Amino acid sequence: MLLKLIFDPIFSLLNLILQFIPKMESGEYLVDISGYVDVIVFVFVFFPASLFTALVGNVLFWLEVQLGWSVIEWIYKKIPGVS
After folding, report:
1. What is the pLDDT of residues 6-53, one digit of tens each?
2. Using an 8 Å Cβ cutoff, are 52 and 44 in contact?
3. CA–CA separation, 43 vs 53, rounded Å?
4. What contacts 24+ positions apart, CB below 8 Å, involve 72-76?
5. Are 24 and 30 in contact (CB under 8 A)?
6. pLDDT by residue (tens digit) across 47-80?
7. How many H-runs (helices) and E-runs (strands) does the chain carry?
8. DSSP sequence for 16-55
9. Which residues are within 8 A (CB) of 77 and not within 5 positions of it... i.e. 6 or more apart?
10. What pLDDT score was predicted for residue 45?
11. Alpha-carbon dihedral of residues 6, 9, 11, 14, nearest 10 degrees?
12. 52 CB-near residues (< 8 Å, 6+ apart)
């Protein structure tokens, strides 16, 4: 009974927030990527696809390494006595 009293306002607030998300009918897409495709086609005019793929792969790899190190650093800084 006490938990219901505590959680009812929280769930009511979450339901209120979720009602603002528009309902999508089947067949509609969340993102229109035609603009991105046009940019990539324009890039392929100047650079070969293999170079572009290597560049994007390299950038994404280093971003993932940085994110991974940030998570590791955050975890070990949570341990008391470790600076």
Report:
1. 878 888 888 888 788 766 665 555 666 677 778 888 888 888 888 888
2. yes
3. 11
4. none
5. yes
6. 888 888 898 899 999 999 999 999 999 888 888 7
7. 3, 0
8. HHHTTSPPPPTT--S---HHHHHHHHHHHHHS-HHHHHHH
9. 83
10. 83
11. -140
12. 40, 43, 44
R_g of the chain, CA atoms, integer Å: 23
Residues 6+ apart with CB under 8 A from 44: 52
Q: Which amino acid is at 64?
A: E
Say how far apart CA 73 and CA 52 lie, in whole Å. Answer: 32
pTM metric for this prediction? 0.48
Measured between alpha carbons, how far is 25 from 56 in angstroms, rounded to an integer?
Answer: 33
